[in-house]
Q: What sequence folds into this?
């Protein structure tokens, strides 16, 4: 387990830090001040902050989920790799949205791809949890089944919201980004505390 | 051992995450939509996914192999560095294939170099195992010799397949990539469970 | 705690190492020697070294602070993510200062943004400490309250100095950078040794 | 100690992996084959391999040295940061040598800077050891003083060789690189096994 967590932390930490490479030093037009040049870069700076928060929240939830998962097998490794493949790709759609957010003909496509990439992260994240928790396959055997169901519902909510926001992006870019912000707010609050079955034996 | 694994995980995690830097935000030709611009980038996106899977599978197998290896010496460190040198170079041949896959005059050279780089990874990976397992030099002393032979055959298969696909690349690019996919499929399934000698003493 | 520290170390290590990407190989004008080309790059080389020292000192202090913090909760995670968001952004203002330090019309803006980014790091760092230490919420319960106050004053000094240097940047770039260097000097010396309450019980 | 090693491993792993970003996909001149384009990139490929080996050997020696060092203080942290600052800068001189190795007017300057950067790594590495080992300040207290002297001499040899090769670079580029290769060969062989004082007490 330790090496799976260490490798995941590595990919998450690198993806989150590579985001900054998309903020370029502005080249000034004649007569333009640097302050104006920087203010016109707001989509890049916003993109950095937004994707940092998205990846950061995924990290916190990955951390939480892997505290509940006590065993590891080959398929869990593969699902986790799929999750990391999606997370590792996020610097690209972030750069895409930053570049085309102010282009009326392309902004919908850019936000659609961005939402799709985050949806793919959410689907793999959900799949890890479902695979690990079904029949207490890999999770702590003492966990209360009702608590497991509550966590499942919480992760389903994430997937469903991103499905909605992917399609919203085709209709209205601002609506899609507003839905995202709502979801960030939900996950901003702490995850529920693990609940154990009464009289459950101790597990190391 | 812990620091060797941590350093290897670091290099693997960084190489796998740097792959995304090769997917560039498309610059649109006049009248071209962003969706068309993105679809024309399929070699870059495919290259990201393919090399992510290749490095991910190497990571999973490195993880597996270093669970069997219980001791470390200077030559193991050097062989592992050679393996990491090859893994760390993969973003370059990946970018090369993405750039020249649709160029009829250059695609064979590009795929040849790509296959060659993966073959080099496989050769070093194989060398680590042979050095560590010969005469139970560094592996868990309780391992069944027949199990060790089975693992050796498995890793030989990897090297042989890449030798074939390197030469296949010179003849037909699609054949080479199809062989790769077959090998990924083989390693997609879990590695065999470690088998111990009967009555072997406990080793920490 | 271990994974929070590992993730923080990852982001700090990556941000500190990405700084080098801003030092570009000089393109020589006709008749210019490479030595002259390199010497004209002093703002890039200085920027690398200065930001490396700033991030390095933050790392050492983060290390020190998390030795005093013994428990972790959701809000500490979020404050730490905010701190990492600011640290992870530093390669951008560093590149900005390197690019515009010798441009009389833009240098103040560039240094203002740079100081502002470091101030944001200091504010989050301070917030982590205040959140964790108030009423011994998350810190080692044996710590002497007077020692906690001394640490708080030390971190307040950092925030105050950066507030001064942000505004100094608007007036005189050299003054702002001189204030920075003074602060680096203060934190160059070791942090005070933890002081415990007399007769405090042992805590693991 | 664990976090110092983890942070150092992080910076070393990132610096070693960033080296690949300097190998660019070749842009072909009309009528040029990709194979010729790649072969003309030999300075970039050689630079990648050479600096990978240099950083890899520093990693192995850092690993070895920190197994002998049992305690940590503020000044050790700072010296280690200085070492990491030099290691983290290596992608730049590597790119410089790759770019100017075939330029007769600039190759000496490029190799001089490259050797100087490696010399700076060696000086800080040496300083860490001297600070930690003098009077058994931070090293394992059971170490035989003669063994400590042998290690010191070994690290002095590294510094002296790089001083020679820095100046050799000004006279003849090939001679400087040949001296480097000799030193790599010396450190290719395992470091001496730690020797303990007779009847030394056990230390954890």
A:
């Amino acid at each position: 387990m330790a090496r799976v967590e260490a490798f995941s932390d590595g990919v998450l930490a690198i993806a989150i830090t590579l985001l900054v490479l998309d903020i370029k030093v502005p080249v000034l037009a004649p007569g333009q001040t640097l302050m104006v040049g920087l203010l016109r870069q707001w989509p890049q700076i916003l993109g950095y902050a937004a994707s940092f928060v998205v990846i950061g929240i995924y990290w916190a939830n990955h951390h939480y989920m892997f505290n509940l998962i006590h065993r590891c097998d080959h398929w869990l490794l593969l699902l986790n790799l799929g999750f990391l493949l999606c997370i590792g790709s996020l610097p690209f759609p972030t750069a895409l949205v930053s570049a085309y957010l102010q282009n009326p003909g392309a902004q919908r496509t850019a936000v659609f791809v961005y939402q799709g990439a985050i949806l793919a992260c959410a689907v793999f994240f959900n799949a890890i949890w479902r695979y690990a928790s079904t029949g207490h396959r890999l999770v702590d055997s003492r966990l209360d089944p009702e608590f497991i169901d509550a966590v499942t519902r919480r992760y389903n909510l994430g997937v469903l919201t991103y499905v909605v926001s992917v399609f919203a992006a085709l209709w209205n870019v601002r609506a899609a980004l507003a839905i995202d912000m709502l979801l960030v707010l939900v996950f901003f609050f702490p995850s529920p505390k693990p609940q154990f079955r009464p009289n459950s034996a101790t597990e190391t």
